[in-house]
Amino acid sequence: MDNSLFLAKFWGWYLIIFFLILSFNPKRIKQIFTDLKDEKFLIITAFIAILVGLINILFHNIWELNFKIIITLIGWMSLFIGLALFIFPKRTVPKLELINIKFVQIIYMLLFFVGLFLLNIVYDIVPF
């Protein structure tokens, strides 16, 4: 299977599942930001984000103006957020909290639609 299609499936399902979990249990968001104040949790979270971002980039660093750029951008965002959390935790956590508090509904819907778009690319549910 092509790396792009595999990662589109992975990120599509991940984003839909993440959206559903946060929609049905919105207390998880507050819990995540509370846990980011714990240094052990922060280091593990940053390490996982760096690892996922780096693996995504190594397998898929394609800058074409189609669905592939979304997968590449997810990898780069994961890497940058992980590095920022690891290198500058005191500055990064408040910025993430501010973004999340102000734009939580927009972020939820964006995650949902990006996930649907990627799954539609793979499974060709709605042809366009």
Structure description:
This protein has one domain. It is globular. By secondary structure, it is mainly alpha-helical. Helix 1 packs across helix 4, helix 3 (39-59) packs antiparallel against helix 4 (67-87) and helix 4 (67-87) packs antiparallel against helix 5. The chain has helices at 3-24, 27-35, 39-59, 67-87, 89-123. It is built from five helices and no strands. The chain is 84% helix and 0% strand. The two termini are 22 Å apart.
In brief, what are we looking at here?
With 128 residues, this protein is an all-alpha fold. It has helices spanning 3-24, 27-35, 39-59, 67-87, 89-123. The protein has one domain (3-123).
Largest sheet: none
In helices, the fraction of residues equals over 70%
Number of DSSP helices? 5
Bulk shape: globular
| Distance, first to last CA | 22 Å
How are helices and strands ordered from N to C? HHHHH
Task: Please tell me how large the radius of gyration is.
Answer: 15 Å
Sum up the structure in keywords.
128 residues; 5 helices; single chain; mainly alpha
What's the structural blueprint in terms of helices and strands?
Layout: H1 3-24, H2 27-35, H3 39-59, H4 67-87, H5 89-123
Helix pairs in contact: 1-4, 1-5, 3-4, 4-5
